[in-house]
Every structure is written in C-alpha cells, then in structure tokens.
Design brief:
alpha/beta, two-stranded antiparallel sheet, 14 strands, about 20% helix
Length: about 260
C-alpha cells in the first residue's frame, strides 16, 4: 500500500503537521459467501471514523505483537527490532488476559482496555465528520439498498425484513475487529511492518525539525490508517441478472503518540 501525505492535519496546540500513513488493509471479508461472484456491477462506499487517540506502545501491542525472525535496525529506537502486522487475539469469552506494556504502571487487560480500540460499536466508534454513531450492520444494509436501487430499482419491492434475517443474525456477532478474523486477510504487499512505520514517522519529523533527537520533547504524533474492506454479495442470478457486489470500506484513524518511545 502506498503512503499518502496528501492530507495534512494541523494541530494548533502543537503547531506541527501530523503525517498520515496507510498501515494496512483487511481485504475481501465475505459476510455472506456465494458460490458464484460476478465482479460487475460493483459498488463501493467509504466510511471514515473519528480519530482514536492511542499511545504507540498500545497500538504496537494490539496490531504488531509478532516479531520477525530477521530483525532490522531502525533509527527511531536505535535498535534492532521488527514486527509484522498481526491483530492481537481475543481471550476466551468470560475471561480476560493482561499484558505488561511499556509506559503503563499496571498490566493492561484485553477486555478492560485494549478491545475498545478495535471495537466496531458505539460509543467507541463515531463517524466523521457527522459525529453520528457508527453501526456496521446498518451501514452495510443501507449501502446494499443504495446499490440495488441504482442497478435494479424494480427489485426493491421484492425485499423485506425477512430477506435479511440470516445477515442480521451474523452481524450481531461482529463487535470487534477480532470477530472478523480469520475471515479477513492482510497480504504482505498492503501492510507496513512496525519498522516501516517508525522510519516513516521519523522521516516526517526530521523534515520538520531538521533532526529529532529527543522524542519525549517533540510531541510526535502520526495518524495511522487501517482500512476494513467488506464485500457483500446480493445473489440475483435467479432474476437473470448479474449478482451485485456491494463494497463497504471502513477507515480506522489512530492518532498515535510516538513521544513515549
């Protein structure tokens, strides 16, 4: 995935631009798989969520907890370390697991703390810029209706609440990103490793500050974006027309504080 700095956000209190980096993309999540998927017509909808404030050590624990066997040197931490993108697994239901994380005086629990950062539910997820609560189920259904109306409006009268009972039952079990794994996949070509992120953030702030030597005094932040791509198929072959693939992209924007590193 290419890095895009086209949109720079200015924070008045810092008076520093915050770089925005595309970290990873969950691809081809099939909420309802079909035996036959016809690629056309295909429709895409994009939802951007409000920024999620998080420390670099928390972000790394949630999304980068798998070390590589061949570490590389990075100038941000002046050491050899590298981690691949991999979502932290959820503990068994009814139990909690705690982790010791640098910068935190006490162990941090998955359900108590970490899960809210990858939650798909309100009040943790809010849509930007409207400020409306985010509902993955409602947005996907709205997008399906819009796409059907655009392609075959006469078919709308054939659908009612009962048409989506199975879909609704499945969606009620999806509350965090963990509930979409392992049905989601992240290919190596579209996910930055942790060392890539550190070097990119370092390069951005070196350009501003000439050379960053003390990150705790620099107030270094970066928006790390993770895109969830969900494809739902509306099977219409019985109507002698092509299936409709409705794609919903959900952009998570993590405003990460790197000053603690």
């Amino acid at each position: 995935m290419t890095t895009n700095y086209a949109q720079i956000t200015n924070i008045a209190a810092m008076d520093l631009p915050i770089p925005e980096i595309d970290v990873a993309c969950f691809e081809n999540i099939q909420i309802r798989s079909q035996l036959q998927i016809v690629p056309d017509p295909s429709y895409c909808h994009r939802i951007v969520l409000q920024d999620i404030d998080i420390s670099a050590n928390l972000f790394k624990k949630i999304f980068y907890d798998s070390a590589t066997t061949s570490p590389t040197f990075n100038t941000l931490t002046n050491g050899y370390s590298d981690y691949l993108f991999s979502l932290i697994p959820a503990p068994p239901t009814g139990t909690d697991v705690t982790y010791v994380i640098p910068g935190f005086p006490n162990p941090v629990g998955y359900y108590a703390v970490l899960s809210k950062y990858i939650s798909l539910m309100a009040p943790y997820r809010i849509k930007y810029p409207s400020g409306d609560p985010f509902s993955l189920q409602d947005d996907i259904l709205d997008n399906i209706v819009l796409d059907l109306k655009s392609a075959y409006p006469s078919f709308l009268e054939l659908f009612n609440t009962c048409s989506f009972i199975d879909f609704n039952k499945e969606m009620t079990n999806i509350k965090t990103l963990n509930d979409l794994i392992p049905s989601a996949s992240v290919s190596a070509s579209c996910a930055l490793n942790w060392n890539n992120i550190l070097e990119l953030v370092r390069a951005e702030y070196d350009e501003i500050e000439d050379e960053v030597s003390n990150w705790t005094e620099t107030e270094a932040y970066a928006v790390l974006k993770i895109t969830l791509v969900i494809k739902t198929t509306l099977a219409l072959t019985a109507m002698s027309v092509d299936n409709i693939i409705s794609t919903t992209e959900v952009v998570f924007r993590f405003k990460v504080n790197f000053s603690e590193l």
